[in-house]
Design brief:
alpha/beta; Rossmann fold; six-stranded parallel sheet; three-stranded parallel sheet; 10 helices
């Protein structure tokens, strides 16, 4: 029996409606409009598209947003000065520096310069530390989006064996720390598998919930999946397709045709995890504007 499709667009839409309601309440009761600053360095087409989508999301929520587009040769110091300006701006509650940056700029210096209370990407060391220790903080958008997909599709990870394929600082590591916490919506037994494994299928076939975030097109196939497992595909990859209008098509890290015949539920690409990332970014910005994240 083919797997149930976990509709990321619909779930993201539900979260956006909740954010819009809370935003309207924040404006009416406290006179606060959530503000988000985007900083884009260079002319990477993918980065430009991402920032445009995020800006559109701000408009839909009624947020205040500003986008700073800087040339690729912008100095690290200039970027640090701009971040300092937004750190001090009371109208800005979230700061997002679109990655990757130009090679001459140290990404660690830039991300560490953002006020952790405005770090809506959840990358600042203070937020990483609070995440690991189970304290409230602004958490990375994609991992939280994965958690929300699981919960809102009726696949609570509590007590399940979750196998994450991939150990990046953006997805794999934070998702591990989110799902293993002894908290509602988590409390899973979590394994991280990665390229050092001699046979990665030894791990993937054990998963009640399999999360693919390795960045390699269609590398997880149906025969690598435990029958009845829930599969979350974080990957998004371009593969050549002469029959497509643009000459390529988007696929995930999971081979959907074979995996969907084995899994009980699966996310598509596109339309799965992708929309969730923006929805959680907007929710993080709202939470930063509400000002109660770090009071616990």
């Amino acid at each position: 029996m083919p797997a149930t499709i976990i509709d990321g667009k619909k779930i993201a839409g539900d979260i956006k409606r909740e954010v819009k309601q809370e935003t309207d309440r924040l404006k009416a009761e406290r006179g606060i409009t959530p503000g988000l600053a985007f900083i884009l360095v260079g002319d990477n087409p993918a980065s430009q598209a991402y920032v445009k989508m995020k800006g559109k999301g701000c408009d839909e929520m009624g947020f205040y947003s500003v986008t700073e587009k800087l040339p690729a040769e912008t100095s690290e110091q200039h970027l640090l000065n701009l971040i300092d300006k937004f750190n001090r701006d009371p109208k800005i509650h979230g700061i997002l520096v679109q990655l990757p940056l130009s090679k001459h700029i140290n990404e660690e210096h830039i991300l560490n310069a953002i006020d952790y209370r405005k770090d809506v990407d959840g990358f600042h060391p203070i937020n990483v530390g609070r995440l690991v220790t189970g304290q409230d903080c602004l958490k990375p958008c994609t991992p939280v989006g994965v958690q929300e997909l699981l919960l809102r599709s009726g696949n609570d990870p509590a007590g399940k064996h979750v196998v994450i394929v991939g150990r990046s600082d953006i997805v794999g590591k934070p998702l591990l720390n989110i799902l293993l916490q002894k908290q509602k919506g988590a409390n899973a037994v979590v394994t991280i598998a990665h390229t050092a494994a001699k046979d990665i299928t030894l791990f993937t076939r054990q998963a009640d919930i399999l999360i693919a975030a390795i960045g390699k097109a269609e590398c997880i196939t149906g025969d690598m999946i435990k029958p009845g497992a829930v599969v979350i595909d974080v990957g998004i990859n371009r593969v050549d397709d002469p029959s497509a209008k643009n000459g390529y098509r988007l696929v995930g890290d999971v081979h959907f045709p074979s995996a969907s015949q084995v899994a009980s539920a699966i996310t598509p690409v596109p339309g799965g995890v992708g929309p969730m990332t923006i929805a959680i970014l907007l929710r993080n910005t709202l939470r930063a504007a509400q000002g109660n994240v770090y009071h616990s």
